[in-house]
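User: My instructor asked us to take a sequence, write out its structure as tokens, and then describe one feature of it. I'm not sure where to start. Here is the sequence I was given:
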Amino acid sequence: MSHHPNDTRTPTDTPPTSEADQALIVQPTILVDVPEDSPAVQEETFGPTMTVAKVRDMHEAVELTNATAYGLGNTVFGRRHGMAVAERVRSGMSAVNGVISFAGIPALPFGGVGGSGFGRIHGPDGLKEFTFAKAIARQRFRPMLALTTFDRTERTDRLFARVIGLLHGPRTWR
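Assistant: Let's start with the prediction itself. The structure tokens for your sequence are:
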């Protein structure tokens, strides 16, 4: 199997007929006992592949899952601890006991973390992507000490140093 399938072919509804077209198709593939540093494990492959590895316990499974730079989506299957495991996996979306079910709920935010991108589409978080937060502070009354203005004086500095000394002890940093 090549490193990643060639995705430059124009999509078509007709099945591939030539030998060249057949070479562009990757059949659903399960990869077993793949080294953790291999591209199939460490890179984001958009294709019908799945890697399977034996682990000691759920802690190691989550640790290995989070060891990649990517984190678009994941699916966790489990009777008792599925939700707890899904919460520990570093990804933008998780499904528990259902394959990519998050994609079918338009009110849920859709997007990844790390190398899988940033930002969200769908839901309130997706709407927020079209905005930006801005903080504006306006001085509403004259301060007791003019510390953050061009009107600051040596007297103000001495008074402020004295207040700090009273609150935190005498200056020993001179």
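For the description part of your assignment, you could build on this observation: Residues 4-12 have pLDDT under 50 and may be disordered. Try explaining in your own words what that tells you about the chain.
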